[in-house]
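Sequence in, structure out. First:
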Amino acid sequence: MIGNPRLNLLIATYGRSLAIALAVVGVLAVVATGWVVATPSTSTTTQQVNQETVSTETTTSAVVVEDGLWESGTRLVDSSVYTFAATPNLTITPRTAVASSEASVIHEVRIRHEAARDGSVFWEETVPQSRTEASVVDGVATSETTITVDDVRDQRAALEDDLVDVGSITTSIEVVVEYDTGTYADEQVLSSPVRMTEDAYWLEEPLEDSTDHSETATIEVQESPNAPAIGVLLLVAVLSFGGAAFVYTRGPIDVDAARRAVYEQRYAEWISRGSIPMWVGDYHVELDTLEDVVDVAIDTNERVVNDRQRDLFAVVNGNVVYYYSDRGQWEGTAWPKMEFGDQSSPVTGDSGATPVPPSIDGGSDPIGPPDDDLPDPDDDDAWERI
């Protein structure tokens, strides 16, 4: 029997129902674990799709027209400075990389003059140089435009004469890229100021740009199974099946004995172990439960004595004994409780009559001690020897 009286009483009272309930809980926990594993949670997130990048780089070049610093016919590419005498013509070559060979790309090159005073532009003029639909080869659209820089210098000089003491003139080269990739359509404006002196000119900034395109899409992401939930459910399943097996494998537990053990534990401070003589007290009052005996002990300020040999709980108050025993009345507790195994029925003769124990001298009483040999009820020592 289990060492916990309350658990013993629970199993004795609800053992079968408890085992079934625990088994059902275990099955449900296993099913829930499978469901959690098979149906992980999902979440939504945004993701960039249909990503495309359109980038443009512009190369400047000029061919030397007379011998001097360079030989005539020399081609200068992306030089940090060009001279009016050697390279009066500047070639602008924009290259636009697109994602699709079916894209449409237009390059427009123009000269821009701006007049500003105190940092504020009060006049501007744009002079187109070319507008070309560039052909796309291997994902790159290329075009060329040649600018006569001497003409640009003359235009700038005329503007400066008109605006003497009024404002400053800034001249820039602009490359406008218009594109349509089939998915995205937009334009890029590349601009660089052109610095000019009496003998030379150069671009102050590179003519390049890059544009990223994308679309935002909402997608559903499947998350990993909930490991903590799975662990808890598996633990519940193991504990439930273990509890069901534990309850099922317990031997039959007597409900009354289990309940009495609970009372013994609950009222242990009022119960003492001891031996109760058969003849103690003149009056013997049988009570229904151990709890009733404890109540009497509390009311009379006495202790309950537990005689284990007689399976008896009793309170002795003067000449009155209040007792409780599973064995019934006071006389039924006179002898220690003994357990016997199953015995076979007495052997009968052919006639079916039960044989009579042998007697002495053919007519005397059956063998055994006569009633007269029992000790005097008042002889304590004799009863103790028995």
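Second:
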Amino acid sequence: MPHGDPVVHDGGPVEFSAESPALKLDVLKTFNRARACNLHLPHGTVRTPVFMPVGTQGTIKGITTEQMALPPIDCKILLANTYHLALRPGTDLIDDMGGLHEYMNWNRNILTDSGGFQMVSLLELAQITEVGVEFQSPVDGTKMLLTPEMSIAHQNNIGADIIMALDDVAPSTIEDDARFLEATDRTMRWIDRCIAAHKKPHCQNLFGIVQGGLDTSVGGLRDRCIQGMIERNLPGYAIGGLAGGEDKTSFWNVVAMSAERLPANKPRYLMGVGYPVDLVVCSALGVDMFDCVYPTRTGPLIPSTQGLLRLKLAEFAMDTAPLDADCACYVCQKYTRAYLHQVMKTEGSIGPQLITYHNITYMLHLMTCVRNAILDGTFPTFVRQFMQSWYPTEPVPDWVVEALKVAGISLNPEA
């Protein structure tokens, strides 16, 4: 999609307010906690709930920006990573090129992660202090200091529509109350440094990130962090510190508590979550935005409307059916499971590219179905049918049943 194409907002021109000059959230309809919204941003309207594909270094693996913009994908917002872009090619260069939209030929919305997640993913290469985070490059061993001010400066250079505050991320699986307290308090101190450093609030929306471990108690760490973020009156808020291997009961309880206590007039973003079941459950709990590398790294585990397909199994070697008969992507229209089974085993083939294209199409279509079901009043029926397709021969996990019950949805309404 050429960079010069006009920005399109649902319903025509959008007037942003002086308080929120680059973001407007219209809540169209709700079902208990779930909601369908139009999120208006500088590069167009994002229909929520939404899944954001991850293009870590300004590119989705194996897919062009034109493919991302055209149907059936029709992506309205994607994610890029500040840490990796700062390493290569450097954000000064991106700024000189007119910003990341121009640099990657993408005239739709972009969200950039602050680099905070690398505290977990590159933990052995990172040293965290009050000043910031010092990383050792996994590429050449050079050291890079990322402070709240530097993170915001990099993101101002990149020019994303939504930028994230640098937070102190403690792995959710550790048993260290002192570390969670330190991370939560430091996240609150760093948000003020991020706000002070932000030079482009007129065109870039700074989101705060809620930390606090798995503590969901009233007045506990996560509750304190939520209240502190709300006091800063930011354009939007993210739920951080999850998707790190914590048990699913703790996971959904943190999501439910956080979504319930965050403001209804601001977008709610659950970071790093993208497994299809999690998307449906957390949408039911009131989350608007999601991101995850799942679609580009699933390998032979393929999501479909019939559930998860394990494409490496020998049973697919002679299967002439498409991956998903209900999917509109060109992979499902033109290739058989047998062919994809073979190319996924062939090094250097187009297999990963084809699977990634299908996976991203599936994920965005799933969220469209979630949204449409909320809008037309059939959300409970949709959720029940989805869970039946995902768990055709086994019971739905207890954590899913419990979370959906809190969201006002029974998987067995006649019981």
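Remark: The chain has a mean pLDDT of 93.
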